[in-house]
Amino acid sequence: MSTQALVHIEHLTRYYSLTCAVSDVSFDLAKGEVLGFLGPNGAGKTSTMQLITGNLAPNAGQICIAGIDLLDQPRQAKQAIGYLPEQPPVYRELTVDEYLHYCARLNRIPRGNIAVALDTAKDRCGLGDVGRRLIGNLSKGYQQRVGIAQAIIHNPAVVILDEPTVGLDPIQIREIRALICELGRDHGIILSTHILPEVQATCNRVQIIHHGKLVFTDSTAGMEQHLNTNSLLVAFNNPPDIGSLLQVNGVDNAEQLADGRIRIHYSDTDPAEALAEQSVTHHWRLHELAPERRTLEQIFIELTCSDTHPHEDAA
Known about the structure:
By secondary structure, this protein is α/β, with parallel strands linked by helices. It folds into 3 domains: 1-80 and 156-211, P-loop containing nucleotide triphosphate hydrolases (Rossmann fold, 3-Layer(aba) Sandwich); 90-153, no CATH class; 217-315, Alpha-Beta Plaits (2-Layer Sandwich), CATH 3.30.70. It has helices spanning 45-52, 74-78, 96-106, 111-124, 140-152, 170-183, 196-202, 220-227, 242-246, 272-282, 296-304; strands at 5-16, 19-30, 34-38, 60-65, 68-69, 81-84, 158-162, 188-193, 205-210, 213-219, 228-236, 251-256, 262-266, 286-293. A 6-stranded mixed sheet has the order 6-7-8-3-9-10, with helices on both faces. The protein has a 4-stranded antiparallel sheet with strand order 2-1-4-5. Strands 12-13-11-14 form a 4-stranded antiparallel sheet. Strand 12 and strand 13 (262-266) form a beta hairpin. It is elongated.
């Protein structure tokens, strides 16, 4: 285990009767990382979150939080965890201040430190002006902020957020994503979601789980390499025939698309410069030349809608 790992998961497995919900999952999380935990419904995301937070016992495996074994010392390990479930555990009949004071007591914050902890959590979550308002009268976006505030009020090393932006409007989603990025500077964050743009907007590492197994894991920078393809999209005002394009250095194949563009496939040598030169020479009048990129959605579907997973060895 890395000495810097805030979360260390090793060979984690959980069965429900004969169904394996989590199968031999292993990963680490360091301070400053925001880990996007992706998967379709029923893939094992929530079960994994419940195992990490100690709300569910594993059949096998090890869970260490901030260097503390969760199974051997559950109380000490859980003190280093802040958790926001998919449905925020807020009491609508309380004010924001009353609720957060209650959460501070639950987390055994000394009485003399509660006021500072409460003010700090409200400030970080943008709740400074709503402390005396009833939670039930707040918008869903602000209720979600209150849920995040209760998760960080005891300043845990690890913050786990399960679907934190479900049901929010676009402005609220943008605000919560900004908050997650800010929290990621001082904590280790695990963000469980099935919203793909959320991962690209907030996370610096990505994992995809399917049928209880990790089928993809990489940094956001590494993920960009998976999004790139060895193909170009080109368009000409005076398009050449496919045979002429196949003569261009580096072009392996070319296919005509329905929108009038042409997809150029290549292996090692990027033919972009050669295509531009040939267009000038032969008056093809090139007006579009761009690398083609896959989307995260395409990778997600590729990994979760087939029986074989090409990236599983990498995971």
